[in-house]
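Residues pack. One example:


***
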Amino acid sequence: MNVIATSIHQAQPALDVAGVSKFFGSRLRLSVPWRAKSAPKKRVLAVDDVSLRVERGEIFGVLGANGSGKSTLIRVISTLLLPDRGTVRVFGLDVVRHELEVKQLINRVSVDAAFFKKLSPMENLMYAARLYGLGADSARSRGLEILERLGISRKVALEPMEEMSRGMQQKVAIARALLTSPVLLLLDEPTTGLDPRSKKDVQQLVLSLRHEHDATVVLTTHDMDEADRLCDRLAVLDHGQVIAVDTPERLKQAGGSMEDVFMRLTHEQKEAA
């Protein structure tokens, strides 16, 4: 764990999102017979006054349909986007005013992770290790250990990424994020595209992070069974708004599976609108 992480006050929540909104603007183009005409920009509210508090050591899930604002929220938390309103604090550090410090505490895995495809998984991991100032020897041994736990052998770890399947590449993305021992790990649909065995390997590794490394995890997923199995608490997003926050057990008290809960909540929200 890095120096900043060791100085974190134990009482601070891992993540405190307070009244966060994020807008996007797009210029529409209207086709006319002889030319294209620009229309005024249309503002889209992707995240709408979201407030969440995630305690240290939690695995916190964010559920929502495509376009609900899940990935935008993760990008704001990870400092890739600036909030237009509200604040985000990671262990008490504001993600805007203390961006560099926050980046040393977090790591993010997205469904569209980028790599140097001509390089091997191990070379990609070592490149990430250098960016984070990790020692080469310790990073190499830890990287191989993580890859093996995810079902990637040493032989495969030295082959070019471009020869690997989409699911295997996603495992490397997860290994790269874990290499830096983040105290807050942001997983944006991490098991999308994985076969059932690989998905189980990733889920087991996520569970072990809390016990072995005192990590806090924020997970977005479309897999309701995954959310039910992994998460201590869940937030349901719909059209950029939080419509429910509770434990999976309490959310299911009205009856049915997590999928039933999700369908019921989003339907009620649609009816209310």
